[in-house]
Every structure is written in C-alpha cells, then in structure tokens.
Specification:
Layout lengths: L8 E2 L2 E2 L6 H6 L7 H11 L5 H8 L14 H13 L30 E6 H8 L3 H11 L11 H14 L1 H15 L6 E5 H4 L9 H6 L10 E7 L1 H4 L7 H4 L15 E2 L11 E5 L4 H7 E7 L12 H20 L2 H9 L5
Antiparallel strand pairs: 1-2, 3-4, 3-5, 4-7, 5-8, 6-7
Helix pairs in contact: 5-8, 6-8, 8-13
C-alpha cells in the first residue's frame, strides 16, 4: 500500500494546501499502529461533505483552529467527547444539516430487520460507575459492589459477569436500562448492524467472531459483552457513519462510493463484512426491553498481539478488505476510488 498516496487528499478531494495535511502525515510515524490507518481513512472518506468539512474546520482544537491540540489523534478524541457525546439540547454533529446526505431514508430500512448493538461491559462501567444507584443495583443483582471506575479490575468484571450469567435475562435487561440511565444523554452514539447478518455469531457464549465481523479491534480477549436487538423504528434516524463518527478509531474503513450504509472491516480474513449504521443510544425502558438478555465473552484474541509484525498485519488486513470490496461491488467508481488511494493490490 502506498501510504503517501492519500496525503494529497482529504475526504477524497485532492488538495495542495490544508491545515490538516501535515498533522495527518505525522500520524504515520506515531508509535500507535492504528494511527497509520487513521490517517489514510481521513484522506479517502468521500462521505464527508464540503459543508461538514467547514463545520470541522471551525472546531477550535483541530489543526488551524484557535486552540489546536498537540496532535490530530488527541484532537479527535476530544471531538468525540465534546461534539458527539452531547446532551439533546446540543445535537451531535452527525445530526447536523451538513451531514444530511448520510442520513438513511427510513423507507430503505425494513422495520422487520432488527438492529444489533454490541458493547463492552467494562467500557460501559468505566463511563457509568460514578453513579451510586448503578453500583447499588449491581450489588442487588449479583452481590458484588463495584469499586470506583478507575479502580475497576478484570477480576471485578469476572465476578459481575459470572453473577449476571446466573441471575438471568431479566436481571441483565434491568442492568442494561440502568447503565443507559447512568450514562445520561451524553452517552456515545451506537454503532449497529442488522441482526440477520450477525445473529449466528451470538448464538453461544463465545462472541469472538461477532466482535471480529463488526471490526471491534479495540476489544480484548476476556472482555464481557452486552447486546441489544431492536427495531430500526425504535432507534430513530439512522446515519451512514463517516470517519468523523469513528473519530480516533483506527479499525474503521470507509464504505465505498455508491454504498448507502457503512460497511465493517472484519478483523479476520474469511469473515464476511456486514452493513453498519450509527444512531442515538436507546434510553431507559427502551434499552431495558431491547437488551438481548444474555451476556457473551471474547474467548479468543480479537487481533494479533502487538508485536513487530502487527503493523504489517493491519496493513495487510486493510488491503485484503479493499480487495473484497472491489470484488463484491464490481463497479468502476469503487475500483477507481481504491486505486486513487493506493489501496489496490
């Protein structure tokens, strides 16, 4: 893959000068492997409109802003927390008028095709356990009183996970609703896939392949997972995700031109990609009722260990995914898009 091919581009538009180009180029030399993919993604994502780009340029902590962060990845993490995880009085950036092109028409999604959202129990607890009500509920359900979020250990999660497995469907649903309430309206947007494409991976207790198919490379072996299944009508407006919603997430891969949904990048060759969307999180009783009522676990490594060959693995996986996209769509705009950014073999 020609990493330098994308640096003349931003959002699949060729550039000579732009405040972000140097910052994106710097990510290639970052000690964090995923940052290389992150830089490429921002170069190739055609789904970000010129209006959305103008909105992003107005954010003070991006390069060229009035108070820029020291590096682009840090700016993206701050963007995620302050512009996407926001109260309803300030709609998240993906719901802005400049992103309407990525809003999915309701009549293109059947209400009979439920969505599935998967989340790490540990990640949820680290955001939500400041709520004493949630801690008390966990103690009532499983007899374990969780510590402060910063003191949460894998052993704590194992005790809670084992307890929930014994407590049953109703207890898990009650916990799901309580987590949503504890997170409040600043909970991150949900990434979701269609259940008919992922249900088979959730049939047992080991959900490793579900995580791989959904491209959730930040999760690790041993993590406990909670899932929700619900009607698209319950979710409200659905959006095709862009790199802005993925923020600093390096396992994302933009969906190709002509595709009306997002497309996951499976983390293992041989697993089929699935369509994905983002939407506002379910809350309260809606979250409780939509909860699958079971918890799963990642019983195998999701991605190869972070060793000297890891960088090559991620680059190869991205090239393999690009080749699969080209083969699946067999359309000239997709082929040209991949070739333009050095993603063709």
């Amino acid at each position: 893959m020609n990493d330098l091919a994308t640096y003349k581009y931003l959002f699949d538009r060729q550039r000579t000068h732009h405040p972000w180009l140097d910052a994106l180029g710097d990510l290639v030399n970052s000690p964090y492997t995923e940052n290389r993919a992150l830089s490429v993604n921002w170069g190739i994502d055609h789904r970000v409109t010129r209006g959305r780009e103008e909105d992003l340029l107005s954010v003070e902590f991006f390069p060229g802003g009035t108070r820029p962060e020291a590096d682009f990845a840090r700016a993206l993490r701050r963007y995620f927390e302050t512009r996407l995880c926001v109260a309803p009085s300030t709609p998240p950036d993906y719901a802005a008028g400049s992103n309407l092109v990525n809003r999915i028409a309701a009549d293109t999604v059947s209400p009979n095709h439920p969505l599935v959202h998967l989340a790490s129990m540990g990640a949820l607890f680290r955001r939500a356990l400041s709520s004493f009500d949630l801690r008390d509920l966990i103690f009532d359900l499983v007899g374990v009183l969780p510590p402060d979020p910063e003191d949460l250990t894998p052993g704590d999660l194992d005790r809670i996970g084992d307890g929930l497995g014994s407590a049953g469907e109703e207890a898990i649903g009650e916990l799901a609703g309580a987590i949503s309430d504890a997170l409040g309206m600043s909970e991150p947007h949900w990434w979701a896939a269609f259940s008919y494409e992922v249900d088979d991976y959730l049939s047992g207790e080991d959900w490793t392949d579900a995580v791989r198919v959904l491209g959730l490379g930040h999760l690790e072996e041993g993590d406990w997972l909670i899932a929700w299944r619900y009607s698209p009508e319950l979710a409200g407006p659905l959006y095709r995700p862009t790199v802005a919603e993925a923020a600093a997430y390096g396992y994302h891969f933009p969906s190709p031109p002509g595709e009306g949904f997002g497309v996951t990048m499976p983390l293992v060759a041989g697993l089929a990609a699935v369509k994905e969307v983002v939407h506002a999180p379910l809350k309260g009783d809606a979250s409780k009722d939509a909860c699958l009522g079971r918890i799963g676990r990642i019983a195998q490594p999701v991605v190869p260990a972070h060793n000297p060959g890891y960088r090559d693995w991620l680059a190869e996986r991205r090239l393999g995914h690009a080749a699969n996209l080209d083969d699946h769509y067999r359309q000239r705009p997709v082929t040209n898009w991949l070739a333009r950014h050095g993603l063709n073999r």
